[in-house]
Design a protein that fits this description.
The complex is a heterodimer of chains A (about 200) and B (about 240).
Chain A (H helix, E strand, L loop, with lengths): L18 H5 L1 H4 L22 E6 L1 E2 L10 E5 L23 E5 L7 E6 L4 E2 L5 E2 L2 E7 L7 E7 L23 E6 L2 E3 L2 E2 L9 E2 L1
Parallel strand pairs in A: 1-11, 2-12, 9-10
Antiparallel strand pairs in A: 1-5, 3-4, 3-8, 6-7, 8-9, 10-11
Chain B lengths: L30 H4 L6 E2 L4 H4 L29 E10 L9 E5 L25 E5 L5 E7 L4 E3 L5 E3 L2 E6 L8 E7 L17 H5 L2 E2 L12 E4 L2 E3 L15
Parallel strand pairs in B: 2-11, 2-12, 9-10
Antiparallel strand pairs in B: 2-5, 3-4, 3-8, 6-7, 8-9
Classes of the chains: A mainly beta (about 200), B mainly beta (about 240).
The complex binds fe (iii) ion (FE).
Fe (iii) ion binds next to strand 8 of chain B.
Chain lengths: ~200, ~240
Amino acid sequence: MQELDYLKESPSQTAGPYVHIGLTPNKLGIEGIYPFDLGESPIKEGAQGEAITIIGTVQDGAGMVMRDALIESWQADAQGIYPGNDPRGAADPNVTGWARIIADFDSGEWTLKTIKPGRVPFPDGRLMAPHIALWVVARGINLGLQTRIYFQDEDNESCPVLQRIEHRPRVNTLIAKKTAANTYRFDIVLQGENETVFFDM
Amino acid sequence: MTLSDKVERGPLFFRDRDWHPAAYAPGYKTSMTRAPFRPLVSMGSTLSEETGPAFGHSMIGLLDNNLIMNFTGEPAIGERIIMHGRVLDEQGRGVPNVLVEIWQANAGGRYRHKKDSYAAPLDPNFGGCGRTISGPDGAYEFLTVRPGAYPWPNRVNDWRPMHIHISVFGSGFGQRLITQMYFEGDPLIARCPIVNTIGQDKAIQALVAPLDMNRAIPMDCLAYKFDIVLRGRRQSFFENRKEGL
Ligand SMILES: [Fe+3]
């Protein structure tokens, strides 16, 4: 028999307690190496769409708010086109789509200021509800966790990804709650009763 | 940000969850409250995972990949090493334009971080981070000092082997990965609870960089070679998915 000659993905290891040294050194107070930290904002001046703010925390299984969590977000523009390598064409030039978000070192709260993304097609052509993809790392997380932010004021029922979640009450953990005009709340719970849905996609 | 020459498309290979560390690994105590208990929701990748941010070579400063010099301009203390290798995908192809970011303790095993109270001193000339973007064939390199081993609060006498933390982006957000590189011959590797969150020895060995005398520079520095592998992408003429699943 011939041998399959695929390589294996590099195994993950935890980001550890000092991830900010590598990914956001300026925010940690290590200044002078990079002029600024990457991923300060997913949008630039003039980005089209509804400006929104999402505020949240990351909590562990003991109910502790994690002050060491680092999140990255990835989203489409208001038309549902991803910047960079979307096969359907070019996105709004003022949407970079990617942000690096850190929990506040004192309060543990994180904030994402962006525009609401448009609907993006699922592989079969049906549209997914507007969402922002997240990747969460911290000390104690051995492989970065994939999840998504959906929005309370959108039609989420028809989203082919959310439809795959068999335990229906858990869908709620992926939906950001509107707390004021253009403002949402999204708390991520790593473990326990209200554990956020994490994906393997 | 620039678009890479060859636009990468297609669904991502499924992650082999038995190859990666388990989320819940009691030997690494912090994982016990930070591991999800419920099963992950598994499905094929969508455009949200298959697309990703692009990074351009122009954003990288001249000394960004030189951790010996990039903090103050005066050299850091320690064993000078080149860390180099290629970023590949699971099909073995070099992946260009990958942002590779690293961070590490200094030669004494101390991080520039207020939460690190280890007795080893800070090196005034060592910041502890670097970054680069892979070349057309996926190659990358850093000049740095070999980090020291350090103790950490887990069991009473746990020590991290010498290691460098590594963060990489592929062309899709679903390829996002953080890992650590270890050094050939370090007796602390086998004793480390974080290393041992990985269940298979073959997978652990994939994170151990061999000494590479071909890349060492005589009278200057040693070298270690470390290839990084990202999730591959499925490519097929039968991949026209408009008709449904
Ligand atoms: Fe470390």
